[in-house]
Amino acid sequence: MSKSLVIVESPAKAKTIKGFLGPDFEVMASMGHVRDLPVRTLGVDLDDDFKPTYEVIRGKGKVVKQLRAAAKKATGIYLAADQDREGEAISWHVKSLLPHSDTPCYRVLFNEITRSAIRRAVDNPGQLDLAKIDAQQARRVLDRIVGYKVSPFLWRTLKTNLSAGRVQSVALRLVCEREQEIVAFVPQEYWVIKVTMENADQAFIEAVLTKDKGKKVRIENAADATEAAEYLKKQEFIVRNTTTVRKRTKRPAPFITSSLQQEASARLGLSPDRTMRLAQELYEGIDIGAEGHVGLITYMRTDSYRISKEAQTEARSFIAGTWGDGYVPEKLPFYGSAKRAQDAHEAIRPTSVFRRPEELSGILKRPQFRLYDLIWRRFMASQMEQEAVEVTTVIVGAGRYTLRANGLRQEFPGHAKVWPSKRSEEELPPVSEGEHLAYKDLSKQQQFTKPKPRFTEASLVKELEAKGIGRPSTYASIISTLKRRKYVTITEKHLVPSELGKAVNEILVIRFPELFAVDFTANLEEKLDRIEGGELSWVSVLSDFYVTFKKQLIEAEQAQSDVRKAVQRESGESCPVCGKPLLIKFGRHGEFLACSGYPSCRFTKPFLSSNENGKVFEDKRCPACGSPMTLKSGRFGEFLACSTYPTCKTTMPLTLDIPCPREGCGGSIVIRRSRSGKRFYGCSNYPSCDFVAWSEPVAAVCPACGAGAALPRKRGKKDKLQCLRCKHIYEPIDSSKTESQ
Predict the structure, then answer these.
(1) Binning pLDDT at 50, 70 and 90, where does residue 37 land?
(2) Which end of the chain is more exposed for a tag (fewer CB within 10 A), N or C?
(3) Beta-bridge partners for 247
(4) pLDDT for residue 44 is more than 80
(5) Domain boundaries defined on the chain
């Protein structure tokens, strides 16, 4: 019996959809991309309108053969990859490899993997969007040119195995420029004075000194702070004014990709990459028992806040039935998307709000449950009546000085019922104008102005989105590439540029100022949108780009020796052999210190960045005494030691910030030493988990099983990765490919 063939990207997605469509459909997975530009060569004809050459990805031959065989017997073919540009490109490549016949071939789109959405998509199929494919092809070809032309320049200038990418390198630039701001920042001293007073009912009220003779006060040294404090202690404290304003706090918008990654990082401690892997699992479908395999959330790569009327109606029904009509807003909430948003998909939401998180707690894995709970609560909050609060301000006079106290009281919980607000204000005790308050205590706090903080993974995502750099599908992979290439390190959850990262950034910014400018990347995204809209030709966009790029590349090649010298920095240390300055240089194993007197003096030694050596990790506590751990360097490399040494001599291995590949373990891979001193990598949950690797793992998502750790492998002249869970060998995603997705 002939069947219709539905082709999706992943086996999990195929299994879920198969359960909805029944026996008349065969559902198969392409396992992601099936065709791409060649690995060893540029694959783009620069003299023939940038014509790309595609080939079947190595290892995908068996999958393609199975798809072709199934297509020959099918009565109809439905290409059901994701809705974004990458999904459109996957569908186009799959179709190009299927046998040419009269069998109708359709493109189907759905925002959620539920029975009704899948049936509706199959019953109303469309055709491939060639303009969207052109936009994706322009991005892919441009990123390939950048990656395959600039990366070799970096290899010859600094060291091998470096990469440059149009988006990745701009993200690195943001991290490096923030670090430069922090280093150049000069802190300014100031003092905060708080006075605790008591009203007639013996209730305490704390107010902050804000004005001196009606003008904003700024106390800049200890002497002035002491003088102000002594003056205040002698004054009468009289309430000059009290105001109470009723406000409604702004309810949060439903999640889009960037905000999901930010909140998952802040509330759950998940990296953007981990967040997207978990969201993909929830989207593609999980067996939840009575309903079978079902997608629990809508498509998770989106920049739109749009919500379907059906979903809003369902949410209002649930809210009324659970918390009462008072929690249902009079009008349907509306959230406008950003100007640059493609608005191709709905916001991220549960496919049904009636699937309460608590009902799935025993079915989902803990990380899946926590993320689903976060998405469910955020969506419900976005559809509820706003929280109502009373904000009270009390102005107190004390001679020439004015003090201010703020308080807040919740009148109606509203959306805060499921998404509590983060605030520090408490309700103030009742006071009246003219009332005398009794002095009880005074505190002086010395503080200093601070520079902008280093980026966290979440705040970098927010910055990329705000500046229009990249798209939702690229945020997680951009940061993963920066970490994998060791351009940045994670210190107390913040991204710190390494010396290698600083050197790479300096070279790219000086030699390719236009290509790696923030504006160029943001403007290119707008051009890609116009290609998708049919306003621009993808060939003309590439032609305009290549004229300037080619000129800068030639100039960079000619100045290579000067560039190499420019990025060498003095370390601030002297050579113990000859006394000359030690320089920070780069080798195959990373940075090292070498004597500037080379070749007459060949002294070298390991390099540990000054911003890391002795760094205190407040989030890592000594298991013996509870004190923070500090980073140290010994004969066997870096390790963590108790900050109270020598009182406490506890040490701990360094974690690689890579999840243990053992399914369900939940630990992280740490650096350990054998009895003979040999370095190896084990699980932080040892002895309950006995995972061991003798080569350094890297963070990479296996396309077969989804594990997040792999070992680098060589197959001939090609770099490969071998999954540490299922042993599947696959090609690493290069930066140019990552950014084109």
Answers:
(1) very high
(2) N
(3) 389
(4) yes
(5) 4-128, 136-185+454-566, 189-250+387-448, 257-382, 569-606, 654-739
On the question of a cis peptide bond just before residue 646, with omega within 30 degrees of 0, the verdict is yes
Q: How much is the pLDDT for 666?
A: 83
Longest CA span, the chain: 97
CATH superfamily of 189-250+387-448: Topoisomerase I, domain 3 (2.70.20.10)
In the numeric block, which tokens belong to residue 296?
């629990």
Q: What CATH number was assigned to the domain covering residues 136-185+454-566?
A: 1.10.460.10
Q: Which residues contact 237 (CB under 8 A, 6 or more apart)?
A: 195, 197, 396, 397, 398, 403, 436, 437, 438, 439
pLDDT band at 740 (very low <50, low <70, confident <90, very high): very low
**Beta strands 401-412 and 204-212, pairing class:** antiparallel
> Would you state the structure tokens that stand for residue 505, as one six-digit string?
């950034």
Which amino acids are annotated catalytic? 299
Q: What is the DSSP string of 454-483?
A: PPBHHHHHHHHHHTT-S-TTTHHHHHHHHH
Which residues are paired to 594 by β-bridges? Answer: 583, 604
Distance CA 153, CA 560 (A): 8
CATH class held by domain 4-128? alpha beta
DSSP for 709-728, written as a single string: EEEEEEETTEEEEEETTT--
Long-range Cβ contacts of 639-648 (<8 Å, 24+ apart): 639/671, 643/616, 648/622, 648/624
Which CATH homologous superfamily contains domain 257-382? Topoisomerase I, domain 4 (1.10.290.10)
Q: Please report, rounded to a whole number, the percentage of residues in the chain having pLDDT higher than 70.
A: 94
Please state, in angstroms and rounded to a whole number, the distance separating the CA atoms of residues 516 and 312: 42
- Residue written as token pair 């509820």: 384
Cβ neighbours around 381 below 10 Å, total: 22
